[in-house]
Amino acid sequence: MHYGFHNSISGRRGYAAALDRAEELGTTAAQLFAKSPRSWRTRSLRPGEAEAFRDALAIGLVRRTAIHASYLVNLGADGELWEKSVFSLADDLEKAALLGVDYVVVHPGSGPAERVREGALKALMLAPGGPWLLLENVAGRGRKVGRRFEELADLIAGTPLGVAFDTCHAFAAGYPLHDDPAGVIDELDRTVGLERVPLVHLNDSVGALGSGVDHHANLGEGQIGAALAGIVRDARLADKTFIMETPKEADVHNLATFRRWAGIG
């Protein structure tokens, strides 16, 4: 099991700053943005930046890494927005390949599911040979794609795509993690297949069951509560990478909670 947080890349070290923060906390995984998550503007690699990141990976604690795609990406859109979304995602995939990052995670977007699938596969075509592209389950308001596990299973069938499982999003979409975490994992395995789910976003939920509210809470302090420990302790997830996207000011608290649940240290 590898675990860590979504970390900032701000500062002189750039991308490697995300690994520096992981080292400070003693975690073995890290997630980061390759560029501003709320802008279409790309971010060029500085001279030596990719090498510094790879060197830090080679000698440090971190063994699993992920890039989260921009929040503006909508693979279900039409026209110019779809094109911009595909190229933004391809840019993240290219950056991930240069940095040696394992996964790129993207919210599928809103619109026809076939359009989402087409966009994800085009991004892979534009940036071949990179990391594993994972479609994340969503909390599910409006026409957003990926609320139900069956929908994700259809999207990735017959493709190299995988799935990132977010606990807050699943709960907000109506999966009873507060009451039966093992049963939810059963359903995820039955529909998607756990072999296609390498990464878990471990987040508690501010919103109620089925609320559709994507608002993360500290571990054990939201509507899922202590039952979230059942996800950490599920033996079927022992080889997964756990990323916490919890409030940043509470990293130390959430890390202690995770380690207690996992029986680490």
TrEMBL record:
Query: Upper taxonomic classification of the species?
Result: Bacteria, Thermotogati, Deinococcota, Deinococci, Thermales
Keyword Nuclease belongs to the record: yes
Domain Xylose isomerase-like TIM barrel, first and last residues per copy: 19-250
What organism is listed for this UniProt entry? Oceanithermus desulfurans NBRC 100063
Instruction: Please give the start and end residues of each transmembrane region.
Output: none
Biological processes, Gene Ontology terms: base-excision repair
User: CDD domains annotated for this entry?
Assistant: AP2Ec (cd00019)
The record's InterPro entries line, in alphabetical order, gives:
AP_endonuc_2 (IPR001719), AP_endonuc_F2_Zn_BS (IPR018246), Xyl_isomerase-like_sf (IPR036237), Xyl_isomerase-like_TIM-brl (IPR013022)
Q: What is this protein called?
A: Endonuclease IV
